[in-house]
């Protein structure tokens, strides 16, 4: 990007006017130094409704969208990520691609290759990297030994073009791999289809080089919503709640342990962090990368790693019935 381009307001667009696309469009509309100029969806009524809400125009087609913008959030169904992403990159547009990067690894590789060839920014929307509670955990944990993740939600009826591993668990797969920083050497687990034709609930156990173990559960058919992560290391236990912003750190205390009080040797501190606005922070970080040429927090390479691990998990799952 030239100096002149870096100082002007970027023109932003959104492909996909569903739940996620609507939120991306609203963030662009809120931010300074960026102008939301167009949205597009194969459902013209959805696009028109979103455009009316945010005072932008509806692109006539995908080609019209790409020619109108400098930056684009892609929030179409995962199976269409490659089609939209590669075409936009070849048109010279910088991309913020909703997670997962693609519906399979080969498709993801083609998107990443197109970004490299076009010399455009490709950021993958692993939103939890921008959550203040995870950032706090990352600053506290030196060497995780055991990690437990629960990411549960009621059935929303969207995202079912991919299984729960690529749709939901991939958040925690990305976070845990980033936190541990070592290769996964073994995977075992089970998955069950409940309300869709793909896996809706899964539990997996990952073992990393060096011995760290992660036990992960993801469900999109639960009666309650829960997004928690617990990490044990040699000198501390850290628990975070992504929804409430609660962070609890427990360590061995400096005072001598009293045998009459079994927990007297533990000192615990609980903090309540503001949830902030992770999506707005993510969009702003993407725009900063476009302006400065810096590397995204989650670039195409990291998006591919998360997708590759998700594929390994799916292949390792024991699944009852015809899906197995």
Task: Give an overview of the whole structure.
There is one protein chain. This protein is of the alpha/beta class and 324 residues long. It folds into 2 domains: 144 residues, Rossmann fold (3-Layer(aba) Sandwich), CATH 3.40.50; 163 residues, 2-Layer Sandwich (Dihydrodipicolinate Reductase, domain 2), CATH 3.30.360. It is built from 10 helices and 15 strands. The strands form 2 sheets. It has a 9-stranded mixed β-sheet. A 6-stranded parallel β-sheet has the order 3-2-1-4-5-6, with helices on both faces. Strand 9 and strand 10 form a beta hairpin. Helix 6 runs antiparallel to helix 10. It is globular and about 70 Å long. The mean pLDDT is 92.
Topology summary:
Blueprint (H helix, E strand, L loop, with lengths): L2 H5 L2 E6 L3 H12 L3 E7 L3 H11 L2 E2 L3 H7 L2 E4 L6 H10 L3 E5 L6 H14 L3 E4 L6 H9 L3 E9 L11 H17 L3 E9 L8 E8 L4 E7 L6 E8 L2 E6 L4 E7 L13 E7 L5 H15 L7 H17 E2 L6
Parallel strand pairs: 1-2, 1-4, 2-3, 4-5, 5-6, 7-10, 8-15
Antiparallel strand pairs: 7-11, 8-9, 9-10, 11-12, 12-13, 13-14
Short structural description:
The chain is α/β, with parallel strands linked by helices. The protein is built from ten helices and 15 strands. The mean pLDDT is 92.
Q: Percent range for helical residues?
A: 25-40%
Principal-axes geometry comes out as globular
Proportion of beta-strand residues:
25-35%
CATH class of the largest domain: Alpha Beta
| Strand ordering within the main sheet | 14-13-12-11-7-10-9-8-15
Q: So what's the oligomer here?
A: single chain
Largest sheet: 9 strands, mixed
